[in-house]
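**User:**
If convenient, please work through this fold.
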Amino acid sequence: MADLPAATFLTDFHAYRAEHQPDDPCWTYLERTWTWAEAWDDVRAFAGALQAEGIGRGDRIAFLDKNNPATLTATQAVCLLGAANAIVNWRLAGDELDYVINDAGARILFVGHELLPSIELIRDKLTTVERIIVVGGESDELEAWVAAASPVERQDDVDPHDTCLVMYSSGTTGRPKGVMLSQHNMVVHTRYAGGDVEYGEGDMMLIAMPMFHVGGSSYALFGPATGTHGFIIREVDATLLAGAMMAGVTHAFLVPAVVAGLLQAGPQAMGLFSRLKVFSYGAAPMPLPVLRGALEHWPTTTFMQVYGMTEMAGVVTILDDAAHRDADHPERLVSAGKPIPGVEGRVVDAITLEDVAPGESGELWWRTEQATSGYLGRPEATEELLTPDGWLRSGDIGRVDDEGFVFIEDRVKDMIITGGENVYSPEVERVLAEHPAVLELAVIGVPDDRWGETVKAVVALKPDQSASAEELIAFARERLAHYKAPSSIDVIEALPRNPSGKILKRDLRKPYWADRDRQV
């Protein structure tokens, strides 16, 4: 990206825009457009309202809503106070919602009006929440709450290393973990993770990916950094996406599943998106047929693939447009590109913890100022994630070729990525194991040309018990977010195990991935 304004705190980018281009458009959402000055006034008033509620340095709020500029306002407002915003996945089921909100220790919960019924069902379980404020709709309380406040500037005790975001990733032990990201993490990421993408006068970026994902929030923050008008849509929906393109969007970040859907919709849908100057994608591997189709339909669009993780504030490596179109190296279409500035990488034997020979596969370790300080309230998990000398264990198995391109091949951690959503097998297994007919089970990811992977369960039933795959899937969907529930279930007599009794998931996965270039 072009040179960005100097910034020590995350809000410095927006403050710069409010001073130097106050009347230019900042965000468009529904029928309204905010200028940079208007949006900055909202940030400071939001911070003042939080301060009046007793929110200060080290406190946390939670935001549960579909995409809304108020989420970005809240994230910047807490930065002025040294507090943090825990952005909650609105797709979570009830018992997952109360767990995350309580784990975050949120004192104030902002909830979108459409999602209020889910919160009302669990209100008595929200042990840390002192106040709930409804966002949007006829019952909106946010606008009046902010309007009544006196705006404040950044408080004197705020430090750049204060946590400003808590993003929940699915937990390997069956419960999500809160990833703590500081203002410094986010500033460094914003400065280096944009690659060589340029933003010019009149450009407009599509903010479509959910802000409870680091990819959604981190991408949205490129707006204040570059001074680019952001067009915000509530969620990824065909009508909303088409409306954004008709409004003049020039830059977009989407997950591969969206592109697969556009290809299936036909040439007219692909043609509409051919207007994009820059198309960025990530959060899941792009199936080669989908990627080749997009390159064919969008010959004048600049392509950029990003690989990263919540624990790294977002992007770690970038596959640039030149590599996408390098006829001499077509194999690089399945690579994740090269590390961005400020990111060091190693490929480590997951057992010996020694670096592997060049070109060989091992666990990818990263070291950068973008890296999280750890998981909220989880010192043991943090110790497993971060080494004493600052390396972050990604949990991904990969290799690096002789020109520095990173190839992601498999996972150390038991995780499935479906449509850009991270699903950890133990979380699904914990739920399915509660079905009275289930004796034992294993959850694996299997390839899918649209979603990258889908969730499959392999189940052995108790003697004299019966349950259909449809019944087990319905059982899971009642207790989990829809994307986490298995889309298919195989019922077998017994699961394969090694001599020590461990279920051999690799054997279960092998038939489904046999003809694939990679195992994720």
